[in-house]
Amino acid sequence: MQPMMRAFGAALASSALVLGVSPLALAAPEGQPEFKVGAIDWKPCEEVPTMDCGFLELPIDYAKPAGEKFKLAVSRRKANDQAGRIGAMVINPGGPGGSGVDFSFGADRYFSKEIVDKFDVIGFDPRGVARSQPIKCSADLLRKQPSDYPKTKAEFDQLVAFNKELREDCRKQSGPIFDHASTRDVANDIDSIRRALGEKKINYYGISYGTIMGQHYAEQYGRNIRAMIIDSNMDHSLGTWKFLETEARGAQDMFNEWVKWSDRTPSSPFYGKDLRKIWKDLLAKAARGELKDSNGNVITAERLGANVVGMGYGPAFKPFADYIATLVQGAPVAAGAFAEGETFENPFAGIFCNDYNLRVSSWGEYQALNAMEKRVAPDTLGSSIGHGAMMGCVGFPKATNPQHPLKIKNAPKILLTNSRYDTATVYEWAVNAHKQSRDTTVFVTYEGWGHGVYDRSECTLKINNEYMVSLKLPRNGTSCAAVEPPAEASVLSAKPKIAGPF
Questions:
Q1: Cross-strand pairs, 120
Q2: Is the dihedral of CA 196, 197, 202, 208 positive or negative?
Q3: What single Pfam family name could you report for this chain, choosing any that match (predicted)?
């Protein structure tokens, strides 16, 4: 599913300190042995020398704390106002596979001044990601990946065989971290960070796949939370059918919103035209194999639909309309490219497939699921994210951290936010996550479009900042009005990149 998101994404555009904290004996996760965590040996970050970077040595398997260890990469952007410092805020940008360390480097551009003034912003690369013993797979094998839209039983069986081979290759290239990279493991790591920092309670901001980390942390360590914002939410309770159906509906809803935008926006190349018919004709052309990129590769109907999903992140209504206009005119569009190298970081297989037990057992089941997603989303042929996530795990053994209803106890009120129209973490997921945690979450809806709510409007910014700084929460069910997206660029174009697909 990684290449799908790159295709349209490419078209859019201090001194060293050592904490004086002695190693701490930690209360281990329930039913597991106790272990110790040491201090973080901070040094100036190579990329941003005014920030601190370091590593925290932790067990790969918390059930075997004396066993093999790995080094978790951690970063710290000290609060500007140390005298008025409130505490530490751990952040994560999603993915699965996003670097929280990289996210922290741009924290002063992403978060408001009142946040970076009052909080030490703590980034970390989740286990298996970037600087934290990344999960790797052979690049040569990844280049051989068959389509995750099989047309025959033979193609389905080929994908199953490939995924099994890929999983074994990734495990061989990555070592034992591959089998211990679930979000439940990451929640334990977050609490280890809290202990290493010497903080009684922490604050947390997680967006996209970072919300599932926050949800798990709240379930396991709710008593250790001061404030938590989970922005653009995963729903870790859905089975295969419902996961695929909700993602497909979110994709179709975004397509409908794009058409509405074009109908009301004179700068759209399709203003005053029948965009639905134009799209239907283009989709039919793609299905006939008549759409091609600049390398002569066919743009399939599924790939065309995937571009709607990519557009929805911004949302990039105008750039997407311009892109589609070039296709309608017959002009070739740029093709994506794979990076060279012996191995390629591929954390998805070790993270998502251990967090979600979405397993398609047969060609017949796949056909039924694929027919359903096309029925729910005829203009996008389902959701490339949902479809790719499901098919990326076909042939894998059962997940080690499978779905379950969200059960948060002993936690303070948590701020849960979501856009009404989001092709990645669809609105239905946030609604359902809130239903499962209504006693501990306050739900705020941004009535507009795109992935990520924090600074969509003055309304969302005020709610987020007031809560994080003063713990003031709005009434549950509060809505913030939609703000028309900029005509020429994605809303997130000038911000630190949010990891995708979730």
A1: 88
A2: negative
A3: Abhydrolase_1
Residues 6+ apart with CB under 8 A from 433: 211, 215, 230, 233, 234, 235, 236, 237, 406, 416, 441
Per the listing, tokens 């990469």 go with 73
Give the tokens for residue 5.
């998101």
Sign of CA dihedral 204, 207, 213, 219: positive
Nearest CA to 444 out of 411, 475, 483, 421 is that of 475
- For residues 333 and 337, give the distance between their C-alpha atoms in angstroms, rounded to a whole number: 13
Structure tokens, 220? 């396991």
Can you tell me which residue has the tokens 């065989």?
Answer: 161
H/E segment holding residue 26 = strand 24-26
Confidence of residue 292 (pLDDT cuts 50, 70, 90): confident
**How far from 142 is each of 198, 297, 391, 478, CA to CA, in Å?**
42, 18, 15, 45
With vertex at residue 400, the alpha carbon angle to CA 347 and CA 190, rounded to the nearest 5 degrees, is: 65
Q: Which residues neighbour 391 within 8 Å (Cβ) at sequence distance 6 or greater? A: 1, 148, 149, 159, 360
Distances from the Cα of 429 to the Cα of 9, 206, 271, 287, angstroms:
24, 15, 33, 31
Helices 240-264 and 363-376, packing angle to 10 deg: 30
**Structural domains in the chain, sorted by start:** 42-134+181-237+406-480 (3.40.50.1820), 136-175+238-332+342-403 (no CATH)
Contacts of 154 (CB under 8 A, 6+ apart): none
Residues β-bridged to residue 90: 122, 204
Query: What letters, b where the CB count within 10 A reaches 16 and e where it falls short, cover 108-119?
Result: bebbbebbbbbb
Residue of 353, 350, 341 lying closest to 70 (CA atoms) = 350
Structure confidence at residue 492 as a pLDDT band (50, 70, 90): very low
Q: 404 with 218: CB under 8 angstroms?
A: no
Q: Identify the band that residue 58 occupies on the pLDDT scale cut at 50, 70 and 90.
A: very high
**Residue 23 pLDDT level (bands cut at 50, 70, 90):** very low
pLDDT band of 17, cuts 50, 70, 90: very low
Tokens of 421: 């129209």
Q: Judging by beta carbons within 10 Å of its beta carbon (0-12, 13-18, 19+), is residue 55 exposed, middle or buried?
A: middle
The rounded distance, in Å, linking the Cα atoms of 181 and 209 is 14
Tell me how far apart the alpha carbons of residues 162 and 413 are, in angstroms, rounded to a whole number: 44
Residue 416 contacts residue 234 (beta carbons within 8 Å):
no
Three-state SS for 380-401 is CCCCHHHHHHHHCCCCCCCCCC
Among left, alpha and beta (phi > 0; psi -120 to 50; other), residue 128 is left
